[in-house]
């Protein structure tokens, strides 16, 4: 009896762990355009009134972290009004598209309207790139047969330097368009944090200086820089969501870049994302379940 209760509790405790793993199939190294099912967690944040255009109202990238929550940058969900004020975009005027490698191949399973947008409470639009992260809650879940999720990185800030990661999204391929109609992916190498901080604290004519904080990270592919429409794109290292693109400074029309790109470091915001979306095994609900597990085990022992 005791063993039975214990096994039941273990089974109950384990259910949530397996459900959030990303699809690891269909992965093709080397290519630039994504294959069907290759990046099932990548989203396109789209303005509904622009869906009839060639680029389908694409505004920014992002990543699904649960079947109902996407992570993107806070700057992606802000508009600047005529008098210079920043306002959060009207959630009902936008939607999230995912689960396709062709922006034009849409279906009921591939788009969801937005219930609410939660911007990080410490994001200040006038201090860009700091706490530059937002969670988009959809009105309903995507089916997991069409759209996948990506687990959040846990690693310490210094562990990933030099790693080769993948960035995928719908940004323009050449700077002449505002988006690409094909989902593209590129390798990016994680850039030394101190060197990146130095690069962005050096005055460059025409560019504002950035204080690269530890809650940001940098990555670069000199032959494949990010372009218009790439903001919010996920940087995935070792199958974990590790960064969200918040700034790029290269001239992508030339297809070369020497400035490292700046990403929000996901591990710094992991607990906030978890609290906002439930994207974790360590959520409040699990803590309660864990407590019930312990109570049940103790009770079972007492009753023995
Ligand atoms: C991306 O990096 C992987 C190693 O992590 C490598 O096998 C692959 O060839 C690279 N792709 C490109 C397009 O450079
Ligand atoms: C938000 O957008 C919807 C649909 O486009 C519109 O009906 C509504 O008035 C907008 N709300 C605000 C506050 O602008
Ligand atoms: C994307 O889909 C559209 C509409 O079905 C099609 O015309 C276009 O050729 C597709 N593009 C690619 C790259 O598959
Ligand atoms: C730029 O990219 C767009 C969209 O992918 C494509 O239609 C266009 O031909 C490209 N232009 C050049 C000059 O390569």
UniProtKB/TrEMBL annotation:
Keywords: Disulfide bond, Hydrolase, Protease, Serine protease, Signal. Residues 28-278 form the Peptidase S1 domain. It comes from the Eukaryota. Residues 1-19 form the signal peptide. InterPro entries: Peptidase_S1, Peptidase_S1_PA, Peptidase_S1_PA_chymotrypsin, Peptidase_S1A, Trypsin_dom. Belongs to the peptidase S1 family. This is Peptidase S1 domain-containing protein.
């Amino acid at each position: 009896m005791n063993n039975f209760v214990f096994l039941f509790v273990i089974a109950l405790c384990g259910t949530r762990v397996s459900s959030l793993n990303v699809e690891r199939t269909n992965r093709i190294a080397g290519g630039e355009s994504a294959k069907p099912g290759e990046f099932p967690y990548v989203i396109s944040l789209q303005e509904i009134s622009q869906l009839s255009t060639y680029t389908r109202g694409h505004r920014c990238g992002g990543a699904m972290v649960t079947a109902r929550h996407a992570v993107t940058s806070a700057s992606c969900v802000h508009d600047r009004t005529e008098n210079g004020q920043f306002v959060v975009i009207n959630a009902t005027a936008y939607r999230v598209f995912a689960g396709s490698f062709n922006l034009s191949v849409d279906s009921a399973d591939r788009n969801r309207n937005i219930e609410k947008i939660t911007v990080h409470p410490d994001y200040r639009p006038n201090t860009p790139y700091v706490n530059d992260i937002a969670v988009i809650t959809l009105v309903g879940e995507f089916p997991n047969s069409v759209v996948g999720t990506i687990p959040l990185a846990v690693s310490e800030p210094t562990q990933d330097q030099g790693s080769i990661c993948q960035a995928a999204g719908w940004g323009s391929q050449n700077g002449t368009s505002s988006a690409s109609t094909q989902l593209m992916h590129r390798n990016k190498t994680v850039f030394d944090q101190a060197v990146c901080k130095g690069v962005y604290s050096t005055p460059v004519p025409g560019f504002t200086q950035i204080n690269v904080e530890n809650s940001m990270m940098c990555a670069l592919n000199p032959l494949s820089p990010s372009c218009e429409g790439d903001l919010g794109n996920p940087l995935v290292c070792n199958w974990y969501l590790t960064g969200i693109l918040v700034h790029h400074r290269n001239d992508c029309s030339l297809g070369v870049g020497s400035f490292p790109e700046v990403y929000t470091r996901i591990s710094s915001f992991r607990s906030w994302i978890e609290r906002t979306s439930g994207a974790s095994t360590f959520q409040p609900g699990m803590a309660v379940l864990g407590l019930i597990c312990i109570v049940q085990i103790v009770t079972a022992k007492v009753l023995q």
